[in-house]
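Thread title: Can someone regenerate the structure for this chain?

I was given the following input by a collaborator and told the matching structure tokens would be attached. They weren't. Posting the sequence so someone can regenerate them.
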Amino acid sequence: MTAPLTIHVVDPDHQRRAKIASCAYAIGHHAEIYSGFDELAALAPEAGIVIALDDQARGGIRELLELLEQQGKGLSVVATSTQPTVENAVAAVKSGALDYIEVPLNPDALALTLEKVANDADVRSERSKRRWQARERLYVLSPRERDVLSQMAKGLTNKEIGKELQISPRTVEIHRNNALTKLKARHSAEGLRIWFESELDDDVRKTPDGWAKAS
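Best answer:
Regenerated them for you:
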């Protein structure tokens, strides 16, 4: 039996929300309900598993996952659909959903789903927290310091980084040392660990709403 969880039910239909919440309570979990992605994002819960309708009119489950990512929330998501298709299920799972299930649900079906995803949800939650903490640490770096760290993560030498960024190897060394100092990293390996934990791509930038792909 899965330990008690908080289930965040996101669905614009109040009857479906109530049904899933009822199933959650019936198998020993707590449920919170939300009318849509924006309401969940506004309340920004810290823990639990999200069970959300794959609302294609709202951008699909990918939109919700991106909202949670921007807030640094380590919540795992199970997508639901009244008429699931292979195409939508594959898209949701590729975006990061743990499972894709048909609604309405019954308590046994919900229990089986939670049993499948609970352990993975814990792992993803911890990974998400580390990723967000690492990104917040990297935010103190200047763009050039971040560029140098990014190139270091690719295994390039100072000379190769200098050629890539069109600066001298000595300037690369200065930016590297400044980056490590700001990160309070004792050596390059520790700085690189922070970079790898952040899972940043070169086109990801900090915005007022959180980390997001640059346009």
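Residues 208-215 have pLDDT under 50 and may be disordered.
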